[in-house]
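Quick one:
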Amino acid sequence: MVVNCLGCGIALNVPDEAKGRQVRCTGCGHVFMVPVDGAVPADAAPAPQPPPPFPQPQFGPAAFQGAPGAYQPSYGDEVYQDNFNLQNVHPNTRAYWCSWRPETFSTAGAILLDIFTCSLFGLIYYGLKFSELPKASRNDFTAGKAIGFMFIPIFNLYWMFRFWLGLCDRINLQIRLRGRTDLLLSRALAKTVCILSVLQGGLQFIGMIVYFGMFGALALGGRQANPGMMVFPSMVFLGLLQLLGTAIVLAYLVCREVFIGKMQTAINVMAAPAMAMPGQEARAWQ
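Output:
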């Protein structure tokens, strides 16, 4: 049975056994009585509340941007910690965080496009999420900054950690708001993807130095009796470096696509029409 919360108006899935019993809204925390006949009793109407400081979330995050008194984050990155108590957040703020309405996209398609475009699809498509997701922390950045900084040499080695870990945190907040802790993304997996990417670039740089060094050894070795004594160790080292680099590239691809697959799956689940996800009913009624 689907009922609307009397506090924030979102749709909640509750079992039929909850008729005539109190339930707690998983979106705003409001406790109300589920009517027996499906109609809202007159005496169950909520008391008049003062107007919220910004528009209601059913209009989406765009309704909060560019208007007088637009929403400004009042928290830092502590909102993304596992022990942060979402119930202590003001209902209007929590409603704004819940205003994100994601769109579905094929998980297999996202993985294949990311592979065929050499990770460019994942950078742009998921980078755009930074402007789509409601800001919860003062440190949250937009898609322009998220994508643009990834093209700055050297600095992008640091920024990729901010990109993927930040996206992981912001998606996980949306998952916790909807009560689907089984969909939480692994920060360790996101960090592993970044570390493998840095290692991959580092090995390519080392290999380039050894490669040019080997040509220098050949040029200098022409004046010596046995130039192969200088070239052979370099060739062996390059071969070992190539094997190690191949293993790191494969590990990077596997970890990255597993993370993207899990993230896209979570987004697709949150894009379901009902705010209450499957498995939430047991926690929604008392």
